UniProtKB/TrEMBL annotation:
PANTHER family: ADENYLATE KINASE ISOENZYME 6, POS9-ACTIVATING FACTOR FAP7-RELATED. Broad-specificity nucleoside monophosphate (NMP) kinase that catalyzes the reversible transfer of the terminal phosphate group between nucleoside triphosphates and monophosphates. Has also ATPase activity. Involved in the late cytoplasmic maturation steps of the 40S ribosomal particles, specifically 18S rRNA maturation. While NMP activity is not required for ribosome maturation, ATPase activity is. Associates transiently with small ribosomal subunit protein uS11. ATP hydrolysis breaks the interaction with uS11. Its EC number is 2.7.4.3. It comes from Terfezia boudieri ATCC MYA-4762. This is Adenylate kinase isoenzyme 6 homolog. It catalyses: AMP + ATP = 2 ADP; ATP + H2O = ADP + phosphate + H(+). It is found in: Cytoplasm; Nucleus. SUPFAM superfamilies: P-loop containing nucleoside triphosphate hydrolases. Belongs to the adenylate kinase family. AK6 subfamily. GO terms for biological process: ribosomal small subunit biogenesis; rRNA processing.
């Protein structure tokens, strides 16, 4: 049984599958904190520079892990990132891999003004199930779930499913929903 009172969940998948949307909605419905790795990399300088070709930060994984270790080990985080295999298994209680139909993903990435090479790279990664395979290779099969994220209805259903998992986890692990720092007595 984990020593954390609240679980840590990774919500991962190819860019454009809805990780941030899922994470924010789940954070609104639970005491879990949305933990955007992209924001941490940028704001805490956990990178070695910016890749102009791919328009993304070059992540310094060691620095990133050092930066977040204390907070993540406390529990109560929804880790939102396009990769999952660098987080130690002991930190994680559930890995949610979002998958999206390629035509839907193409439209989403095009709306973000991704260049053709970046769109193609991400569509290929989705077709080859790169992130799903990383998750399956890095974590116990019992904690990895794959969910479709093609529509708003999928998002709502997924968030409810993850929320139900969270509620069962806290019940089974002696957690208390108000122990994430949002205790009602602290708000008075």
């Amino acid at each position: 049984m984990p020593s954390r009172k609240l679980p840590n969940i990774i919500i991962t998948g190819t860019p454009g599958v809805g990780k941030t949307t899922h994470s924010q909605l789940l954070a609104d419905l639970t005491p879990l904190e949305h933990f955007s790795i992209n924001d941490i990399v940028k704001n805490k300088c956990c990178h070695t520079g910016f890749d102009e070709k791919f328009k993304s930060w070059i992540v310094d994984e060691d620095k990133l892990l050092d930066e977040i270790e204390g907070e993540v080990k406390q529990g109560g985080k929804i880790i939102d990132w396009h990769a999952c295999d660098l987080f130690p298994e002991s930190w994680i209680d559930l890995v949610v891999v979002l998958r999206t139909d390629n035509t839907v993903l193409f439209d989403r990435l095009t709306e973000r003004n991704y260049d053709e090479e970046k769109v193609t790279e991400n569509i290929d990664a989705e077709i080859m199930q790169v992130i799903l395979e990383e998750a399956r290779e890095s974590y116990d099969a019992e904690i990895v779930i794959e969910l479709r994220s093609d529509s708003a209805e999928d998002v709502d259903s997924n968030v409810e499913r993850i929320k139900a998992w969270y509620e069962a986890w806290t019940k089974n692990n002696g957690g208390n929903e108000t122990e994430a720092g949002d205790d009602e007595s602290d708000q008075e």
